[in-house]
Design goal:
N-(1-d-carboxylethyl)-l-norvaline Dehydrogenase, domain 2, alpha/beta, Rossmann fold, six-stranded parallel sheet, 14 strands, 17 helices
């Protein structure tokens, strides 16, 4: 089989590399010529564990190709996957400019039957709009060419995207076409052989499923953060509460970890987009509005604890930040709590020193005025406090004696609850957690 994937971000590259890995001939397309040049030369523009190896292996054997031309990749393919970005507009709605722009280009250049599969996260009704755009372009050309549009949302977690694609919980497909159904059956057969579930449904339901899934996970995170803050006020221990409720089979223990709020490319924009979809439909998603409010406030909580400890005066103090990415195993800083924390510390007059195993270059690209350290210890030299923001493995067992010796004050604010008060107190640290 032969497919084209338009867009070489997280979703496009992972999808392309994984499909190539199971024997499919894949061409990935992007208008960014520099990105395509880098990919052809083996330079992967994002950090995702194992992705560089997968891309190299399948490029070397000739199953994975890269180009900047959509027109060249529409003939003789079984399907075209759309994996372009849908960033949020100011009102929270998903920006469909890139999706519709690709639809227009397909309508202007397609010559034979085409199945367009939307992997981008898009609001309900997008498939209909894409269909209208392609039909209009074909009408302008005076042609009548059959095509189908299907929805196949991704459920990849950054940091474990390859594992999620190759061993999915489920594959969701929205289509009303038997022909599209057959093509997608063939594409996903290697995964079905391992008994992974492919769930077929109508297109609007598939489009909604992606948003509803992310909204539910975001809700669990904000709920636990709310409970954590209440525990802090009444003297309960949220980790004990988490274990207690997580043992209930109706609840389960996933996404019940309190912290400094969620970030990344999915949860923030998808919650906003779903709230916007409800608004234009004359509905109000009260729970999700609260989820967003809780999350925005949670990103500030470590700084509030820091300011309280120092009686609201951190002017001129050096504060060390461990972690920049919104979670481990990625360099993605989109909507990361670290951005809020850095901004608040600087506005309060503090000096920020940062270290992250992977996301330092991404932070530099954003022109953020901080001190960049080469490791966790350099970040803490002469610091008044450490704020742990991202729970990278290398932060788990530092040398507390070294840190205590090089810091001006031994104070640590644990934004992910990866340490224990007993351990830190025994090593001479003042310890705060969520």
């Amino acid at each position: 089989m032969k497919i084209t994937i338009i867009g070489t971000g997280y979703v496009g590259l992972v999808t392309g590399a994984c499909f190539a890995e199971v024997g499919i001939d894949v061409t990935c397309v992007d208008k960014d010529i520099q990105k395509i040049t880098d990919l052809k030369n083996g330079r992967v523009p994002i950090y995702e564990p194992g992705l560089d190896i997968l891309i190299k292996r399948n490029t070397d054997v000739g199953r994975l190709h890269f180009t900047d031309s959509v027109k060249e990749c529409l003939d003789d393919v079984d399907a075209v996957f759309l994996a372009v970005g849908t960033p949020p507009n100011e009102d929270g709605s998903a920006d469909l400019f890139h999706v519709l722009d690709v639809a227009r280009e397909i309508g202007r250049n397609m010559k034979n039957y085409l199945l367009l599969v939307n992997k981008s996260t898009v609001p309900v009704g997008t498939a209909s709009r894409v269909t209208e755009v392609i039909s209009k372009e074909l009408e302008t050309r005076g042609l009548s060419i059959e095509f189908d549009v299907a929805s196949n949302p991704e459920f990849l977690k950054e940091g474990s995207a390859i594992k999620d694609f190759m061993g999915p919980d489920r594959i969701v497909v929205g289509t009303n076409s038997e022909r599209a159904h057959e093509i997608l059956d063939r594409l996903y057969r290697p995964f079905m052989l391992n008994n992974y579930r492919v769930i077929y449904m109508d297109i609007p339901s598939a489009e909604m499923t992606k948003y509803a899934a992310n909204a539910m996970l975001a809700t669990r995170i904000s709920f636990m953060n709310d409970i954590a803050n209440l525990c802090d006020a009444v003297g309960a221990y949220v980790n004990m509460v988490r274990k207690g409720i997580g043992s209930d089979s109706r609840i389960g223990n996933k996404f019940l970890y309190p912290g400094v709020g969620y970030g990344g490319s999915c949860f923030p924009k998808d919650v906003k987009a779903l709230i916007h979809t409800a608004k234009i439909s004359g509905k109000k998603l009260r729970v999700l509005e609260a989820v967003e409010d809780v999350n925005n406030l949670q990103k500030e909580i470590l700084v509030h604890k820091l300011l309280k400890h120092y009686n609201n005066d951190i002017s001129g103090m050096k504060i060390a930040l461990w972690g920049l990415s919104f979670k481990p195993e990625t360099d993605d800083m989109r909507d990361s709590p670290a951005l809020v924390i850095i901004d608040m510390i600087k506005k309060a007059g503090g000096i920020v020193s940062v270290y992250d195993p992977v996301a330092m270059d991404e932070c530099k690209k954003r022109n953020i005025d901080v001190i960049y350290a080469k490791d966790i210890y350099e970040a803490c030299f002469d610091a008044m406090a450490i704020l742990l923001v991202t729970e990278w493995k290398e932060f788990r067992i530092p040398s507390w004696s070294t840190l205590k010796r090089i810091m001006k004050e031994a104070v640590l604010f644990d934004g992910r609850n990866i340490y224990t008060r007993k351990e830190l107190n025994e090593n001479g640290f003042t310890y705060y957690s969520i």
